[in-house]
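Dear U.,

For the methods section draft, I wanted the exact inputs and outputs in one place so we can describe them consistently. I've listed the two proteins in the order they'll appear in the manuscript figures. Please don't edit the token lines directly; just add comments below if something needs changing.

First protein:
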Amino acid sequence: MSSVYDPTTYTAQLEAKVERLRALLAPFGAPEPAVFDSPREHYRLRAEFRLWRENEQRHYAMFAPGEKHQAILIDDFPIASQRINQLMPQLKAAWQASSALSFKLFQVEFLTTLAGDAMITLCYHRPLDEHWEAAARQLATDLGVSIIGRSKGKRVVIGRDYAVEELAVGGRTFRYRQPEGAFTQPNGTVNQKMLNWAYEALGEREDDLLELYCGNGNFTLPLATRVRKVLATEISKTSVNAALHNLDDNGVDNVRLVRLSAEELTEALNEVRPFRRLEGIDLKSYAFGSVFVDPPRAGMDPDTCELTRRFDNILYISCNPETLAANIEQLSDTHRIERCALFDQFPYTHHMESGVLLVRR
């Protein structure tokens, strides 16, 4: 499948993904997938560019896969949000006019949100001094953004070190902090569709939810409104801190969040060994009816996959349909696919996000 940006090919490339998902899930008797498309352009909320010197000027640059020495110089980036495309020339003009901003600047990262917030990270091969900070403060004011300066062993924050997102799910708007450097869903429009699908798939319940790999609470916030209480786990300290803020900011008070990996939680639930981070949490007080998982590309390890088998409902969001199919195969003797969906988070690439609701046979 082509990875070249060409809106005229969008419908065909999306249908190819649907066919691929159908084929992977066919052995498990999956129903027809719901398909959630992407905007054809300006869908990506974050972007990262190396800078390339040519004719004594720095330019935004990208590189073909496996090619480090032949830069593709760009002035705009049509798959990125309109805000990123607005900021790109403004930032370039600013570094061209200021040696304090441009000296040994080698990388620029943009993070924007559907809510209109924006943060720019500037990465340097030199220490950041008071001249840089004065110029960066003026830049932040001029562009209406937060600026993060990074050099070896140092980070300078001007404004906030997170962007603010707002997503509408189930008739309610949730507000999210998205920290600099932490994972966030790149396609905000499709993310919102994904959250609403998961919200509907879980349904209104009177029991409890276990969530593995919760990140900054992207799914946790809306799903918590559908159940009695939630036990959520995440290993990244930055994501845990963001999730705690997001729960508090939204007044969601029925979630306990623990910094454990999925493998560690499996050991705790199987009473293999105790964890200090679970002190004060009575695991036996939970009446889990469902588990929600959104694992990395490798999918669930066999032990975690086996853990999910004990739940009546397994709600699974996957960024790798091959590992999703492998996990479903392990579970297929006890669970069947009730719903499935394709979310086109990454148009014009072979990557795709998918979701399944597995229910006990």
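Second protein (the one for the lower panel):
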Amino acid sequence: MKIGFIGAGNMGGAILKGYAPFAERNGDKIFVYDKKEEVRSGLEEAFPAVTACGRETELVEKSDIVILGVKPNLFETLLPEIADVCTTDQLIISMAAGIRISLIEGYLGADKKIIRIMPNTPAQVGEAMTAICRNGNVGEDDFGHALAIFNSIGRAMEVEESLLHCVIGVSGSSPAYTYMYIEALIKAAQANGMEASKARVFAAQAVLGAAKMVLESDLSAEQLRINVCSPGGTTIEAVNCLFENGFEEKVQEGFQAAVDKSKSMTK
């Protein structure tokens, strides 16, 4: 497969870097265009499977799958530029928050195969969570190619487009909330005498292990939490303190703020 990335910033770059080793093993070719020449050349030098392109249209003409990684406010400029070189055989994948499939169809044509995704930045370490939705032109074979790309950098699941606002709250933006939690643990450990480098590892590994247990256990997250809390022990003391201070409610409020912002941005 020939896979093109238009835009290689935080998210597009994370997906490209995560997928590049798989592409090399699989014999896929990756094309990249970014407005910053140093980004293009840097990716070309770093990954044997990557070839830089000088224009967006050049990339589209060379690619079987085109992944649009530019910011949402650039779509109304980008889509008319590439419309004439997009074909009905290609798969167009957008990761822009707030840009509906119907808007992309309006520029590229209702006959085009269009997928919309909502990934997150852990793609760069092979642990992304990506939501995928598609229009009616995308058959199972094409959808299978998209799933293969995003499953190679973590996990991918199909959802209805109407759920992408929710996805932003639960996985698209939530790494930032998790970093805040880890940062708070690190600061608390330092305040109790642990050096920052060790606190970083202790806190991050604890979060990684807890997340893995949620994914691999048949128990609910609630039951896993209960199982750790021995009566009269240290964990129940901490959990009760967090409950009393509205920990769950504050996380849910942050989640909802991301969802509401996504809805307000939608075109």
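Candidate sentences for the figure legend, describing the second protein: The chain has a mean pLDDT of 95. Residues 196-216 form the longest helix (21 residues).

Thanks,
Y.
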